[in-house]
Write a structure and sequence with these properties.
This protein is 31% helix and 15% strand. By secondary structure, it is α+β, with helices and mostly antiparallel strands. It has two domains: 249 residues, Transferase(Phosphotransferase) domain 1 (Transferase(Phosphotransferase), domain 1); 47 residues, no CATH class. The strands form four sheets. A six-stranded antiparallel sheet has the order 1-2-3-4-6-5, with helices on one face. Strands 7-9-10 form a three-stranded antiparallel sheet. Helix 3 runs antiparallel to helix 5. The protein starts with 30 loop residues before the first strand and ends in a 7-residue tail after the last helix. The N terminus and C terminus are likely disordered.
Length: 417
C-alpha cells in the first residue's frame, strides 16, 4: 500500500501530484480483465506497470494501473490510443478494475535509453540513430495534438532488435490546454514550464535536446542538485559546456544548442525537422571515394583510384544530352556560331561578305563600287578593345571603314589620316 499524494522534487524525479488514495499491489496470478498478472516491472508517480499474459491472443502485454479518478486519468489512455506509429508504444485496451483505470499496452522487452547508455561503449552515431527514431515518435504525437511533457531517457524503450519506442504518456496534455498543472521531470523541463506557462510542442523539443545532449556528452546541460538549482540554471541559460575532447561533430552541437534556446520561437520548427537533421549524413556522398583511397593506400595500388578524367566523364554523363542535329545543305560545318551562320546564303556572314567585297574593290569611296559599311564591332587602329555598339555613321579613314560616331572608337581613330 502506498500514498501517492506526495510531490517529488528530486531533479531526476517527476513533479506530479496524484490524487491521494491507497492502492494494493497486484500479486502474480491475479486477473485484470482478461489478462493474468505475471510480475511488476515498474512504478511511477501516476501508476504501476506489470507484465501480464493475454490468454486469448497468447502474447505478453504491459498492464499499467493508473491511480486516481477515471475522468482525469483516462487522458493518457485516450492520448496514446490516437497514436499509431512504429516508434510509439501501442495501446491495446482500456478498462477498470476495483475503481482504478488500467491500460493494456504493447510489451517492449529490452531496456530504457538510460540503461542502454550506462552500458558503456556507445558511440555518437548509435546515439543519433536511436534518438532520430524517438524524434519521429514525438513528431507523430505532436501531429496528433498531444504534448508528452515528460520526455527523458527513462521514457524511451529499446527492444532486443534495436527498435525505439516513446513510452509513458502519463503526463500528456492536449495542445493548448491551459488548465493542466506544472508537471514533469525538473532536469528535462523547458523554461516556460518553470514559469508556469502552458507547454506546447517546443517544450517537448527542449526536453528532447536535453536528453540528446546527455546521451552525446555524458552530462546534462543544466547542472543542479535540487529543484531550485536546476530552475535557476535553466532560466538563466547557464549551460555546461561539452567536453573539449568530445568526438561529436560540431553540426550536432549546433543542432542541440538550437533546441535548447531560451525562447521557444528560436528553436526548431518541429520535431520532424530535428529528425531530418539527425538522419542527414553530410559524408554519405564522400564515403565511397574515401574508402577507395583507403583501400588503395592499404594495397599500394594507385590504379584503383578513379582518375580526374574518369570523375569528369562520370559527371558529364549525368548531365542531360542535347538532341543531335545536322546542318542544312549548303551551310558550313556545325561548330561555334553555326546556328547564327546557317541562315545566310552560302554559309557566309555579313562580315565574310564584307571582306570579300574589300578584296574585289580596286578603289576607295571615290571610284569603283564602294562596299557596304563593315557590320562588325569597330576597333581602333592600334588594336584596342572592341566596342559592343554598332556604327551609326561609318566614314572612310586610311582606306577602311571606321566608326567616327562612337565615343569609344573615335578616340582611337587618327582624324588626320
Amino acid at each position: 500500500m502506498g500514498d501517492f499524494s506526495t510531490e517529488v522534487t528530486n531533479p531526476q524525479g517527476q513533479i506530479a501530484v496524484a490524487p491521494a488514495g491507497s492502492f494494493s499491489l497486484l500479486d502474480a496470478g491475479r486477473e485484470v480483465g482478461r489478462y493474468r498478472i505475471l510480475d511488476r516491472i515498474g512504478a511511477g508517480a501516476m501508476g504501476q506497470v506489470y507484465r501480464a499474459e493475454d490468454p486469448q491472443l497468447r502474447r505478453t502485454v504491459a498492464i499499467k494501473m493508473l491511480h486516481g479518478s477515471e475522468g482525469d486519468l483516462l487522458r493518457e489512455a485516450q492520448a496514446m490510443a490516437r497514436l499509431s506509429h512504429p516508434n510509439v508504444v501501442a495501446v491495446y485496451e482500456v478498462g477498470q478494475v476495483d475503481g482504478h483505470v488500467f491500460m493494456a499496452m504493447e510489451y517492449v522487452g529490452g531496456q530504457t535509453l538510460k540503461a542502454w547508455r550506462a552500458g558503456g561503449g556507445r558511440g555518437w552515431r548509435e546515439v543519433v540513430r536511436l534518438l532520430a527514431a524517438a524524434a519521429r515518435g514525438l513528431d507523430a504525437a505532436h501531429r496528433a495534438g498531444i504534448v508528452h511533457r515528460d520526455f527523458k531517457p527513462d521514457n524511451v524503450l529499446i527492444d532486443a532488435d534495436g527498435r525505439v519506442r516513446v513510452a509513458d504518456f502519463g503526463l500528456a496534455a492536449e495542445r493548448g490546454d491551459d488548465d493542466t498543472p506544472i508537471a514533469g521531470t525538473p532536469a528535462y523541463m523547458a523554461p516556460e514550464e518553470f514559469e508556469g506557462r502552458s507547454p506546447d510542442d517546443h517544450a517537448d523539443q527542449f526536453s528532447f535536446c536535453v536528453t540528446l545532449f546527455e546521451m552525446l556528452y555524458g552530462i546534462r546541460p543544466f547542472a543542479g542538485r535540487t529543484y531550485d538549482e536546476v530552475q535557476a540554471s535553466v532560466l538563466s541559460g547557464a549551460m555546461t559546456p561539452p567536453p573539449d575532447d568530445s568526438p561529436v561533430p560540431a553540426r550536432l552541437r549546433r543542432l542541440v544548442l538550437r533546441g535548447l534556446a531560451r525562447a521557444p520561437a528560436a528553436r526548431w520548427p518541429s520535431m520532424g525537422h530535428i529528425a531530418d537533421a539527425l538522419e542527414r549524413d553530410p559524408w554519405a556522398r564522400r564515403r565511397p571515394l574515401l574508402l577507395a583511397v583507403a583501400l588503395a593506400a592499404a594495397t599500394g595500388r594507385s590504379s584503383m583510384l578513379p582518375s580526374r578524367g574518369a570523375l569528369r566523364a562520370s559527371r558529364l554523363a549525368a548531365l542531360p544530352r542535347r538532341a543531335a542535329s545536322s546542318p542544312a545543305p549548303g551551310t558550313t560545318r556545325p561548330g561555334r556560331g553555326w546556328a547564327r551562320r546557317s541562315g545566310r546564303a552560302g554559309g557566309r556572314t555579313p562580315r565574310t561578305r564584307w571582306r570579300a567585297c574589300r578584296r574585289r574593290s580596286t578603289a576607295g569611296p571615290d571610284g569603283g563600287r564602294p562596299c557596304a559599311p563593315r557590320p562588325a564591332t569597330p576597333t581602333s587602329a592600334i588594336g584596342s578593345r572592341r566596342s559592343s555598339s554598332t556604327c551609326a555613321s561609318p566614314v572612310w579613314i586610311a582606306g577602311a571603314a571606321r566608326c567616327a560616331s562612337s565615343s569609344r572608337c573615335s578616340a582611337h581613330v587618327p582624324t588626320g589620316a
